[in-house]
Design brief:
497 residues; alpha+beta; OB fold (Dihydrolipoamide Acetyltransferase, E2P); 4 domains; 5-stranded antiparallel sheet; 5-stranded mixed β-barrel; 20% helix; 30% strand
Length: 497
Amino acid sequence: MSNIENTNEPLINEQIDETKNLNTEVAAEPAEVEQSADLQKPTEAEPVAEAPVQPEAADPEVQAADAPVAEPSNTQNDEEKAKVAAENKRLAEEKQRQFDESFAKLKQANESGEAIEVVVNSRIKGGLRVMFDDIPIFLPTSHFGSRRNPTEEELTESIGKTLKVHIHELSEDEDNRKTVIVSRKKAIGSEVWSSIKVGDIVEGPVSSIASFGIFLDLGGIEGLIHISRLSQVHVEDTKAFAKLGDIMKAVVVEIDQERNRIALSRKEFEKSPWEGVEAKYTVGTNVKGTVRRFTDFGAYVEVDKGIDGLLRVAELSWTKRIKHPSEVLKIGEEIEVQVISISEEKNTMHLSYKRMQANPWEGIKDKFVIGNAFNGTVKQVMPQGCVVTIEGEVDGFMPRSKMRQLPRGKKIPYNIGDKIEILISDVIVEQESVIIEPKLDESEIAQAERSRDSERPQGKRREPKQPQVTTETPSGSFSLSDLLPDSMKETLIDQTK
């Protein structure tokens, strides 16, 4: 069949009388539909090439090729005219029967969702005309492949080729006009899923860019290169890393067909910046770095391109209990740190900020003598006790068990910012810890003892000294019982009697 010149006129040649009685009319070919991964119905229409789904007998060229029946001349008698008319009718009926059978196959494929094979016949406005058992069907440009706008070269090169497609739309109106639109998207996606596997090296254009990564078009489906897998070095901005249409290679690292996800990585194509790092940054080396990001447990400091070391909160200060790194550092700040551990195999480096200064704990032990009283400010309150800054120099911990004035089960009677007087219970240099308790006068101590005695069950007599259930540190300063609730400690003490 030749290409259709006038796309706004019906394809039926009205001069062929033998086909006028066919019930099927030519349907106006639908406009190219919007690209849609789930093959939704087109939302707009424009006067594009017709997509006739009726017997090819309606085409004068097909009529001449398939049914070369000569028109009777004026000299033929009535009998010869009747024979010609009967033969033409038989051919038209046969053509109609074949068309009905083929269209029934299309309806079945539409209902079952199975793919069909079509042959590309010609390039027309808005897409391609493809043939299924001599039935012309419309394949929109946006459904030719995974990209909305395939090149003209891709479209013209497909002419004469056999393609696998799925029915995108099939409809019949009251006038028996039939519309059939097909799509390659699902078929292409199925081919990709069946051929791809973990470890494969794939290549494709960048189809979209998000803050968390870059998507590649793998020919029908998309794969995601997460920002953490884009490079061996830290990537701050994905939009600065690539632009739409860039061709990238990547390695398939994970496939989840049920969730329609393919995870990719391109780090494998770069040399690791951690090679030789142990020789370059030995333990004890002081280095300069830039604070890149915070976590609840510390901060990451970039000491070289692609090499981030972890600075834990415990390594931020000798004397202060730091809850979050933002109390000491700022993002983008340049600081000097000391390397305390490093592993090329694990790509890890641990840093210390406090070790850039001398350890003050021997002096702290000499200044804050056990049993002496000092002024303090409540810094943090928690169920186990509270943190108190002593004389503005060092943070000490006051366990709940040391608060003798506190009745069992009652709320800790301190708030952040309260000024209190404390006693030093212990100083543990090895653990960089000061254990404290509130300073009470004799009346407060007596009141606390009476309160505790009144809370004891009847028949239980308080002994002056009781065996202490504890797991002491080598210095004997801080026990497990300090972290236990009063009710549990009473139970354990009773069991030892």
